[in-house]
Design a protein that fits this description.
Strand content: 5-15%
Number of strands: 2
Helix content: 25-40%
Largest sheet: 2 strands, antiparallel
Bound molecules: zinc ion
Length: about 70
């Protein structure tokens, strides 16, 4: 199975998520960095790490029954 990082643009959530399951990236704590570029790098590294380490089986898609 090939999973990808996808940008989710929903009513309740905007951010990065998984194309194969309901996992979504929620940044932990405030963004830190000396500059915007550094914050972005930090954010992307955190996002990529969490994406790589999550298990799709733990986040079953809930699209069939919203709310
Ligand atoms: Zn997933």
């Amino acid at each position: 199975m090939r999973r990808k990082l996808v940008w989710l643009d929903g009513q309740n959530f905007q951010g990065w998520g998984c194309s194969e399951c309901a996992w979504a990236f929620k940044p932990q704590g405030p963004l830190v960095g000396e500059s915007i570029a550094e914050m972005k790098t930090h954010y992307e590294r955190q996002r990529d790490q969490e994406f790589a380490s999550h298990a799709c089986a733990d986040h079953p898609p809930a699209t069939k029954n919203p709310r």
